Amino acid sequence: SSPNKVQKPDAFFQSLLNKPDDRFSWIQENYQDLLNSLQGVNKEAGYECALYRAGSSNNNVLAQLVYVNKASPAETAGLKRGDVNDQINNQQLTLDNYQTLLQQIGENHSITYRPYDVASQAFGTSKTITLATVEYAENPNFLDKVITVNNRKIGYYVYNLFSTGPTASSTQYNDEMDAVFSRFKAAGITDLVIDLRFNSGGAETATVNLASLIGKGVDDTKIFAKRQYNANITQQILNDPRYGASFLTTKFTNKLQNVGSMLRNNRVYILTGSRTASASELLINGLKPFMDVFLIGGKTIGKNVGSISIYEQNKPDNTWGMQPIVVKSFNSLDQSDYGNGFTPNIQDLDNALQLFPLGDNNERLLSIAIQTILGSGRLAPSGEGLGTMVGHSFDFKNRNTNLVLDSKILD
User: How distant, in Å, are the alpha carbons of 111, 217, 246, 329, 408 from that of 221?
Assistant: First the structure.
């Protein structure tokens, strides 16, 4: 009721939050950087890594590359999924410094790593390379393929960020997503595996697009999600002729590329991880009333709330941007019980020391999905594990754990 208004903007913002309940609202000094990050545009070298404690006898940390973006400096330098890195800028990663060192990879930096060879399943000798960073627009449509095993055709889709395009007004990535499902439909898939283990959220509009391509019998008359604001805002919405009651629901859209009716047992398989969050969880929750959503991997973060971007375009002296939580999400059955995350049907830490490429039938989570689809009941051994994850490069990206409502909302 009496905030301290002489604080700096970021400290003032933090003082207003409802803690500890609000884990996700944030503010940053440059709103354009905020908006760019939400669309997957960041200054980076183009690789993501999971961090594990290297051993119980010391505090050293090992960073394992989980994927490398296409046409990025990291890919040009020859980095691949599975490579392991223990130094950034010639400093050993430890439990005490890894957060500080990871913040340095947004600028030109060096890493000391051991390349992983898939064919021999062995690591090469350690080498140090310098990586340049660029303003990189990450395309979330990372990989799609049809895997034919026995009498099943499995559509496999790796989708790493809910973004409609490299700019807020672009539909490029949604259009590419539609094309993926057009190929799946033309191939006559019988099963569908959506890989969201690296997807920590993004735009609601991209989420609805994907849900509309997957759900059986969905169209623009069916409710995908419901929005719950506080009582004051809800009343304003209901009284505003621009919005009204219909504004509190989000409908599916009509998609000719929809594959829902083709899927065996009306089931979709979704691969998850410890950083799967927000818009990814909205997708899972929104599809549950319409089909069997079978999860494989790690427990998700548990974010059933969404945010909007607030910034001032017409005052050059005010560059701050805020991303406050303003809404709670429910599905068409009024369910929103995933504040502690979704627990997978088949849990797996996905922490093998030897990683196969994404899309390889031997890759751990995909192989579990394939064997579950075939009903073989036999899971391939996971090999040597790296223990419990202590951090992730995603944790230092502002897009992390976001469900972002349309920028035109509540203007």
Answer: 52, 10, 12, 19, 22
CA pair distance 257, 155, nearest whole angstrom:
13
List the beta bridge partners of residue 192: 155
Say whether pLDDT at 56 is over 60: yes
Tell me the per-residue pLDDT of 130-158, one tens digit each, with 9 for 90 and over. Answer: 999 999 999 999 999 999 999 999 999 99
CA distance 284 to 124: 40
Q: Answer whether residue 359 shows pLDDT above 80.
A: yes
E strand or H helix at 110, and its extent? strand 109-114
For the chain, give the number of residues: 411
pLDDT in tens, 299-324: 999 999 988 899 998 898 999 999 99
Helix, strand or coil, per DSSP, at residue 59: coil
CB 155 within 8 A of CB 193: yes
Q: Which of 347, 385, 157 is nearest to 268 (CA)?
A: 157
What backbone phi and psi angles, to 5 degrees, belong to 47? -135, 155
